[in-house]
Hints:
The protein is an alpha/beta fold. The chain has one domain (2-114). The protein contains six helices and five strands, in the order βαβαββααβαα. It has a three-stranded parallel β-sheet. α2 runs parallel beside α3 (53-59).
Amino acid sequence: xxxxxxxxxxxxxxxxxxxxxxxxxxxxxxxxxxxxxxxxxxxxxxxxxxxxxxxxxxxxxxxxxxxxxxxxxxxxxxxxxxxxxxxxxxxxxxxxxxxxxxxxxxxxxxxxxxxxx
Length: 117
C-alpha cells in the first residue's frame, strides 16, 4: 500500500493546530489521499505543541461522515502525537461517530437545546 505522509507543522505553518480553517485544509488533503486506491495517509504531528478539538473536528472528525471506522483505521494513521493529544483525538472520533450515526436526531436535539425550533 502506498503511503502519503503529511507533516502537520509544514501543512499549517505553525506549532499550534487550533483553528477550524487549518483543520479544513488538512481535511481536504486527507480526503484527497483517501480517494486514491491503496493509499494510506499518515499524519505526522512532529513539532506540534498545541492541538484543539476544534482543529481535530475539522480535520478528522468530519471524515466519519464519509467513511466508516474500519476503513479509516486501515487507511489513516497518526504519528508523533502525545498521549494527551491522542486522548483528545479519541474523544473527537467517538463524538464524530455518534453524531454522524444519528445526524438528524442530533441536529434536532441541538436546535431544541438552543431554542431554534
